[in-house]
Amino acid sequence: MKFLPTALFTLTNGKSSGRRNVRQLISLVLIVLVFILISSVVFHWIAAHENMVSDNNNNEIKWYDGFYWTMVTMSTLGYGDITFSSPLGKFYSLGVMLFGMLSMFIILPFAFIRFAYEPWMEAQNAARTPRTLPEDTRGHVIITNFDPVSRALIHKLEQYANPYVLLVGDKDEALRLHDQGVVVAVGDLDDPEAFRNVRVEQ
């Protein structure tokens, strides 16, 4: 039972590796699938305990009704066509419902944020703040500081349609400047490779 909180922490921890995140996601999916399978089996056991041979519409209960009941209960739809009357069945229904709510409102949103929304946002930010310039970039001005002087220089360069790039060490600062209309690239100012990435030789 210690796995579930650990997995939730991993899903919301931005520093964990992508491969480990995938393993955690697969493990969570397997937990849900195993729970559905076990719940379906227990459903038939309780139905036999209550001598339930048909649903509320007088349809004979089939083997697949266990999966149907489990999914309906987990999703809290509550169609009411298959219901237990004993205290055991009612408490069991409550447990399945609580697990379904946990899955829908906690596990699935965390998984969506971690594996869909965050990668999309990272891709958007990476496109706005590249670390390299195209290989055919040449004749451009590389600026390494953003102050009133460089701001005035950028204004003049834009006025005369001269290409430039502002090399920024901090990604958040680069995003802020990009949103202000400044052409930026991310790189360590003390790293020669960063200048090669912005085509300093061209």
UniProtKB/TrEMBL annotation:
Keywords tagged on the record: Membrane, Transmembrane, Transmembrane helix
Regions that span the bilayer: 25-46, 66-84, 91-117
InterPro entries the UniProt entry points to: K_chnl_dom, Trk_Ktr_HKT_K-transport
Pfam families assigned to the protein according to its UniProt record, in alphabetical order: Ion_trans_2 (PF07885)
Residue ranges of every copy of the Potassium channel domain listed in the record: 31-108
Coiled-coil residues: none
Presence of keyword ATP-binding: no
Keyword Ribonucleoprotein: no
PANTHER family (alphabetical): POTASSIUM CHANNEL PROTEIN 2-RELATED-RELATED, POTASSIUM CHANNEL PROTEIN YUGO-RELATED
UniProt-recorded name of the protein: Potassium channel domain-containing protein
Organism: marine metagenome
